[in-house]
Amino acid sequence: MFDAGVADEVRGALAGPVSTTARKTLGLDEVASLPRDEAIEAIAARTRQYAAYQRKWMRRVPGLVMVEADRPTGEIADDIVALARTRERLPRR
Which residues contact 90 (CB under 8 A, 6 or more apart)? Predict the structure, then answer.
């Protein structure tokens, strides 16, 4: 993101009016206020925290099926298609 110019994008966004919702964008404050390396570390930490929060929240959704995504995309897609066809839960790996 930094190599692609995120710092300039953030400066441009903050130069205009920014909604309350946009202000909460993960990484916006970090990019705007921290040196590059610190911002990267802070964004990574916040991303992990947010992912953990989402996993915790999703466990309470009835009928939701979690699909492990740390494998080849073809395998993930095959499992999703199989799930859709059978309407059953996939076994945990």
Answer: 65, 67, 79, 82, 83
| Amino acid identity for residue 42 in this structure | A
Domain ranges, ordered by start, for the chain: 6-86
Cβ count within 10 A of residue 90 = 14
Run of H or E including 5 = none
Cα 45 versus chain centre, distance = 12
Per-residue pLDDT of the chain (93 residues; tens, 9 = 90+): 999 999 999 999 999 998 999 888 889 999 999 999 999 999 999 999 999 999 899 989 887 888 888 999 999 999 889 888 887 655 665
Residues 68, 78 contacting (CB under 8 angstroms): no
- Torsion, CA 30, CA 33, CA 35, CA 39, rounded to 10: 0
The residue whose two tokens read 């953990």 is 52
